[in-house]
Amino acid sequence: MNSELTDMENIFVNLDVGSFDELIQNIAQPLYKSNDVTEEFAEQVVLREQHFPTGLPTEPFGVAIPHTDAKYVNHNKVTIATLKNPIQMEVMGGMDDSKIDTSIIFLLALGQSNKQLNILQKLMKVLPDEDLLYRIKTGTTEEIYQIAKNEIGL
């Protein structure tokens, strides 16, 4: 097992998907292969998103941080995906079902609640940084990996 939270297999660049469901099915594959998550993981992420949206109206690109309950996680991982074309996602905590175009996804597979809080705090420092979001959106797999390691702390 790889103890890093993010590795090259968990970074997807310029992914071409038509829906959130298709996105999660695609980017969860390395998590399944390495036994980081249970077989219900992707389905549970999609179901949770329907009730507790994770879209964030950040600039210059919308970001989402989908995740699910710790019981579907065997080993902690963070998957990062950039999308060729944005997908519409509901805004986190939105009362009016407002939607945003989302182009950067941080899929969290985290088993302990204290780990979730730690990772969310790291991501919250990144989200207001327009330059960093731009570098993630336009970066190569290697560049995003280096940003995840050196600047986000994943």
Sequence-ordered SSE layout with sheet pairings:
Blueprint: E1 11-15, H1 20-27, H2 29-33, H3 41-51, E2 55-56, E3 62-64, E4 77-90, E5 99-109, H4 113-126, H5 130-138, H6 141-152
Parallel strand pairs: 1-4, 3-5
Antiparallel strand pairs: 2-3, 4-5
Outline the structure in words.
This protein is 38% helix and 23% strand. Helix 1 (20-27) runs antiparallel to helix 3. It has helices spanning 20-27, 29-33, 41-51, 113-126, 130-138, 141-152, and strands spanning 11-15, 55-56, 62-64, 77-90, 99-109. The relative contact order is 0.20. The two termini are 16 Å apart. The mean pLDDT is 92. The protein has a 5-stranded mixed beta sheet. It is built from 6 helices and 5 strands, in the order E-H-H-H-E-E-E-E-H-H-H. The protein has 154 residues and is of the alpha/beta class.
